[in-house]
Please model this.
Amino acid sequence: MRREFDDPNPYIVFPAVEPLPDLDVRFAGLPSDSKTTRHWEQITTDVASIRGYVEGDSMRRIHWPYTARMNELMVKEFDLGISAESWVLLDMHHISQFGMDLDEIDNTEELSVTVAASIVDQLINHSIRVGMASNGDWEHIIRPDTGPEHLGRLMEIFSEVRAFGQRPFQDFVYGIGAYLNRCNSLTVVTSSVETEWVGALVGLLRYEVEVSVVLVDRSSFGSSTDMTSVMETLHMNMIPTYLVRKGDGLNDVLKSPVRDIYRSWVSGVTGNIE
Model:
């Protein structure tokens, strides 16, 4: 159906978003109680424990009542609390995608955007600070924030981004590392069957960035290549991996990494063998 208007106004159609009530807490970089348990050198609002003073500790960290009780200098250690930030990296390199020339709607690009937008929507609606990055026709790097205005900004970007990016995904991952630290979690959404970019993620793991990957299975859209090689590489490096296929309900497939499901299945089978 086509309609013509005398005075048309521009409008933006936000991407489809699926509710994710059972989203794995790994995407937020937080355990189930919404608090990290790592001790942190900077002062936060959450005191994790008390320990003895060591040379170099800031005087601001001294716990004076406990110092008086123990008759020696005691200092506070802090948790990150809910101050950790999440990033969603959407791979829009043109080589990573499949099906765009066959179907304008039903392809890996559209499903990747839906996955990324749904994760962002779920996290921000739980007051988690979220940033996003994409290597599409225009590169986007938006620092973490939260709230309705920030969510609207990210949804607008998701609605406009196209998988015409020329910058290789591996290079983009290396570049985004400059924005990340040990307080951050990074979720990668990609349908790439290459494995070189996994090495860039391994580099982030060394800096204690929490990394997870959502693979959009291009073979479910008719591609002759599947995700086996990249999945094996991710598993070898112990990176939590989720697999989304055409027609999947996102809440179901983002509950648990593929490896966790596989282990559960194997355990169930072997447990019945006598």
